[in-house]
Amino acid sequence: MAVAHSALIRQTDQIAMPATTAEMPPLIRRLGAGVRDVMELRALPAPVARFQWRARRLARHLGDRFSLASATRPADLAVLLELADGRRRVVELGTATAWTAISLALADPLRLLTTYDPVTQPLRERYLALAQPRARRQIELVGGPGLAGPRDRDPIELLYIDSSHEREQTIAELHAWRPALAPGAFVIFDDYVHPAFPGVREAIAELGLEGELRGTLFVHRPSAS
Ligand SMILES: C[S@@+](CC[C@H](N)C(=O)[O-])C[C@H]1O[C@@H](n2cnc3c(N)ncnc32)[C@H](O)[C@@H]1O
Q: Does one domain contain both 65 and 78?
């Protein structure tokens, strides 16, 4: 008997299977995404995992692929939160829709986070509204590039660079922030191993920074060099 072929269906010996997740019925797709979220988010502290879960659900509902693709991946976020433990003055360069900023605030109620981005993402406030008001008050949003440098004299205990990913800008950012780093501070670069962003690796090489790779993050401790 001839087998009917559909562009959407891949025929196995026994069962017709969807060829990609996009072809699955919406309920199955949502369940699949929910299971994936639980697996990926379980390494995070409970308040952070709860926020990320809700943010992912909202992003899918809104069709916000930008946030789903650009926010720091859960495995890297777990490393970032581990390194941030006990560090209260934190600066992030590259806010996007603030998922990581909110996560850093939720992980420590005494942490103050300043985050820079020249672009205000239209959906940012939707995600900030998911955070408790207390966490929202811990976050200072700065509309401007990371290379603008510090706005006050508070020593920074952790600098997280997840901005342009371009060589020259990354170098300029480190020069702008280095004088503000507290003794023992961490400088963490996102996407060190990402093939699409060679600028991060090139900047680190040009600056001659020592450090270690944790996930896709490059972790540099100036006072240890
Ligand atoms: C990968 S996204 C950041 C994701 C965010 N850290 C998170 O985990 O949710 C990169 C962001 O860097 C911003 N950006 C680009 N150039 C920048 C610069 N010179 N300074 C600060 N942010 C910049 C972009 O507008 C974009 O929102």
A: no
Quick one: which atom of ligand 1 is closest to the CA of 96? 27
What domain range includes position 31?
A: 2-69
Closest CA to 91 of 118, 110, 115: 115
Compute the distance from residue 38 Cα to the ligand 1 centre, in Å.
26
Given ligand 1 and candidates 67, 117, 165, 188, which is best to mutate, with the most ligand atoms within 8 Å of its CB?
117
Q: How many domains does the chain have?
A: 2
- Contacts of 20 by beta carbon, 8 Å cutoff, 6+ apart: none
| Same domain flag for 86 and 44 | no
Statement to judge: residues 161 and 115 lie in one domain: yes
132 and 55 within one domain:
no
Average pLDDT, the chain: 90
pLDDT-derived band at 9, boundaries 50, 70, 90? very low
Residue pair 89/155 in contact (Cβ under 8 Å)? The answer is yes
**pTM above 0.85?**
yes
64 and 36 in a common domain: yes
- Ligand 1 pocket (Cβ < 6 Å) reads 70-72, 92-94, 96-97, 99-100, 116-119, 145-146, 162-164, 169
